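Same chain as my last thread, 299 residues:
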Amino acid sequence: MSVQPERQYFMEELGAILEDYTEWYSRILRSVYYAKNLEGTAQQPKPVTLIDWAEEGLDKGLLDANIVETIKGADAEFAESAAKFARNAQNDTTPSLEEFDEFRTMFEDFYGRVRRIERDSQLADSGVDTETGMRSMSVFDRDLKRELERRARSDNPFCLDYIRIDRTDLVTDDALKSDLVQKAAEGVMACLRTFDDAYRKSDYEFILCLKNTDYPGANAALNRINRYYNQQNIVFVVDGAEKAVTVSGTIAEVIPTDDIGELIDNMAKDVMKHADEPGTVLQFQELSQLQRFVKGIGE
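reply #2:
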């Protein structure tokens, strides 16, 4: 059997696997809210089908190692959220609406992330930028549309972080560019929660989609990335001299009616105005085209 049909059949198994997790989610809710009417404990064994499936895919060369790590991370975070939620029943305490919404949101994030793997498999690049391990812009519009639809239903905050690598004017050849991009991407990926997404927009530009996150949370995410570079002493070398890897960025809280393309363009322009200030973090201010024109004249 050729690899493509084998991968197709393999991906089709995800439907049944997600049914296992949906059933588990339902059992947890039932045992927590109706613990007094049921015998036994609220603890419910987590399915292992997804992890088994991911490891099989890696062994057969049908899944990339980065995707497998993403799956394991999402599985672990959902399991941790379920355990936290179920502990309420053990303490004979009914979860609050806020706690229920938090658990439900975690399930929706988990479900959507696993389902997306199946959709990505149908793309030529599998939705992944091979140099950085980030998602590629080929799936950005599709992913964002789904996230904004959910944002409209739930009213949970959602932020975009536009990130640009600093000191790119020092890059003199392709080898140095590749080294800088990979090191910068390493920090971004290391600091993201498993249910957030990072996209490589261009050679030196990244877009972060931060779910259930407001301005302070998005600001903390950017600062966490630069702190990671500093703590890990991540540098790139130019003419024998070490230069610190840092990124600058702009944060915008997004609503479903925003023109995302225009928003990202304006975020990029704001960052470029501070190109000589490495590590700058800005909060995006929505301005009309006329206001931006007048502000530009003033500067």
